[in-house]
Write a structure and sequence with these properties.
4 domains, 3-stranded antiparallel sheet, SNARE binding
Length: 474
């Protein structure tokens, strides 16, 4: 073997080893001999172990051990065979059970098929009968609702007649006057020329009949009305934001006090609760506007809220009020109440064979509902035509009435524009005292001169209302 370091062949006799490769090559033969000896030892050891095992088996103890192992093996085999037999029996029983279940299922399927042959027809028939019964019940419900609407219209008609609502034509003008309880229903634009007693009485009658009609119709007005009752001598009305959202509120004035003075007395208490708008006045309208502008504004807002309630009630019951955006049509309380009466009288009050709009006699719903007189249908006291439902909400949204505040502003402008402007101002007694004092030392002949001198000497001490007369420009 050639050395990889010194590049020479090994020769143990001639050349000794000079590197590790030469040393390895030197001991290589010894390693091979050692390996052969180890292999021979292992072979001999195996032969010895085999011979010793054979000698042990040939002995009596070894035979008994062999028999014992054989018995154990046979017992184990018997147990395995018994378990296998048991499994075969269980499998057989399971198969029998499966077979019996399949037979039972087959019988049930056949029975179900025989029973279900007419089941579809029976189900369809039962569904048709149920639908027809539901339609008939709904038709009867609608019929009862129409009968209730007719009853409501009859009650409203009788109430308005008993209250004395009537219309009289003015001579030659083509216009009409409306009376309720022998008191004229006031025209809002002409209130400045009417006495406060007539205004208060007329508004009280209108509020009373309106509450009575709404009670019969089961309708809740958008602006809540309060009629006179104990410790509440006059009718009032709340604005839209405060209506139906409060508890019992005391009357906004004390006996012997006007509403304006009561508001100063109550102080902070009136700020915590909503203040109702009065439907009455104790002074002429022009005088009230000068002395108490707050009460004047509240009163105008109250009468426009009352007119708004009447117009809203007419629109919700299908009664036309004319142009819903017109101030004259909305605030014509007498005409709207009379139109409501005429619409209520147009009802057929015979409760036999009532035709229900939108429903056929067979109970089927008709999509095209004829437009007719439907006064008394929609209310807050019934579920069929409920004003709080989606359909009722759409109905109330269909007629857009102007805001009561806008109506009050228009009414205020109308009253201010129609107020008469006198050419001469009438003086009170206090204004004459200055002139009487100045003329006390003069004769009657010099009266005109003295008056002229007083007017020239003391122009700054007299206000605009002092002096004899004052000419105003138109």
């Amino acid at each position: 073997m050639e050395c990889s370091i010194c590049h020479r062949r090994h020769d143990a006799q001639k050349l000794p080893f000079l590197c590790p490769v030469d040393a390895r090559n030197n001991i290589y033969q010894g390693r091979m001999k050692n390996l052969q000896l180890i292999l021979e030892i292992e072979t001999l050891k195996g032969q010895i172990d085999k011979s010793s095992a054979d000698s042990t088996a040939s002995s009596p103890g070894g035979l008994e051990q062999s028999l014992a192992r054989q018995c154990l093996t046979e017992d184990r085999a018997d147990q395995i065979l018994a378990a296998a037999q048991k499994l075969r029996e269980e499998i057989k029983a399971a198969r029998e059970e499966i077979r019996s279940r399949k037979a039972a299922l087959a019988r049930r399927r056949s029975d179900f098929a025989s029973v279900s042959d007419g089941l579809v027809q029976r189900r369809v028939k039962q569904q048709q009968e149920l639908d027809k019964s539901a339609q008939m019940l709904r038709f009867r419900w609608a019929q009862k609702t129409e009968a209730t609407a007719n009853t409501r219209a009859f009650l409203c008609t009788e109430a308005l007649k008993l209250y004395g609502l009537r219309r009289t034509k003015k001579g030659g003008s083509g216009r009409y006057d409306y009376h309720l309880g022998k008191v004229p229903i006031i025209d809002l634009a002409g209130m400045d020329s009417i006495s406060p007693e007539v205004i208060s009485t007329s508004l009280a009658h209108v509020a009373h009949i309106l509450i009575l009609v709404c009670h019969y119709l089961s309708v809740r007005l958008p602006a809540e009305l309060t009629l006179p009752h104990r410790d509440y001598p006059r009718p009032t009305i709340f604005n839209l934001n405060s209506s139906h959202r409060h508890s019992q509120i005391p009357f906004p004035s004390f006996p012997g006090f006007s509403p304006s003075s009561a508001s100063h007395v109550r102080g902070t208490e009136s700020q915590r609760v909503p203040r109702p708008r009065p439907l009455f006045i104790e002074k002429p309208l022009t005088q009230l506007a000068k002395e108490d502008p707050t009460t004047y504004s509240f009163f105008l807002e109250g009468v426009t809220l009352l007119a708004y309630d009447i117009a809203w009630l007419c629109c919700s019951q299908g009664v036309s009020v004319g142009n819903t955006s017109s101030f004259e049509d909305i605030c014509s309380m007498g005409r709207n109440l009379y139109s409501f009466l005429m619409s209520a009288q147009a009802h057929d009050f015979h409760t036999i064979n009532i035709k229900v709009p939108g429903w056929a006699a067979s109970g089927e719903e008709v999509r095209e509902e004829p437009q007719g007189n439907w006064l008394g249908r929609y209310s807050h006291g019934g579920a069929f035509y409920f004003l709080g439902s989606t359909e009722g909400t759409e109905l109330t949204r269909s007629f857009k009435l102007p805001s009561p505040l806008k109506l009050a502003d228009k009414l205020k402008k109308r009253l201010i524009g129609d107020a008469p402007t006198p050419d001469w101002e009438l003086l009170d007694d206090d204004a004459w005292k200055v002139e009487d004092t100045s003329m006390s030392g003069n004769t009657v002949g010099n009266q005109g001169i003295v008056i002229g001198k007083v007017a020239d000497v003391k122009p700054a001490n007299r206000s605009g209302s002092n002096g004899w007369t004052k000419l105003k420009h138109r």
